[in-house]
Amino acid sequence: MNQHLNVISSFFLICTWLFIGYIVFRIYRKQLEKPKVWKVILVFLFGLFTFSININGFETLIKLPILPLGVWILYFILRDKNNSWKKYRRYAWFAFFANFIFLLVTLIEIPIQHFVYPPNKPSTYLANVNSATIIMTHPSGKKMRLNRDSLLKQLPTANEHRFFSQEWYDETYIHESRKERFPYQLIGVKSKWGSGISSDIYIEKNGKGILIDTAKRQYYYRFNESILKQGGQ
After folding, report:
1. What is the pTM of this model?
2. What's the 3-state SS for 123-168?
3. Cβ atoms 178, 169 nearer than 8 A
4. How far apart are the first and last CA of the chain?
5. CA angle, 77 then 63 then 43, to 5°
6. CA atoms of 29 and 90, how far apart (whole Å)
7. What pLDDT is recorded for position 1?
8. What is the spatial distance between Cα 227 and Cα 205, in angstroms, rounded to a whole number?
């Protein structure tokens, strides 16, 4: 299974398209004058085109359809062509309303995703650390290696902290030393099965913090004990 494939999203997407395909088939079967199938598909896909408002909720981009642009364009194209609009309008309008089906499915999927793959839990991103190791990404780092036992022991109780405080800014950009707070990167880890999450994970210089950088946001977690120990990898 591809680690970057989100099982829940894929399942909902397949089920949604199967349901939509079933409704289109029902419309087609009830028509006395059967239109060409390839035209039905083309009209439906064009009818999906809408003017939408993008809303960012729960770290997910939600598209709220407002205007049926595809339906309007199809109407002006087909209205004078031998009753073509009458033949295909149900597919065009259903395509527009199919956007609301996708919206509803997204709203149902979000809480399920957050329950199965909680975005604020480090275990979502570090579900498997059997092959984990560290690399030094900044010369200010020392020759260290990962203390895997310490990491596994502390992951369940790791606390999320505020990222990039004023203290961090001063250390990184104001002071002449320009310290690098995260000179190590944790590699070889796997996210929770089926999550499809890809992330970069950096370790704090003292080994008591990790920064998880995902496509949506960053998470910073603190440990009571260091997850690093002296020596090479």
Report:
1. 0.80
2. HHHCCECCCCEEEECCCCCCCEEECHHHHHHHHHHCEEECCCCHHH
3. no
4. 29
5. 25
6. 13
7. 38
8. 10
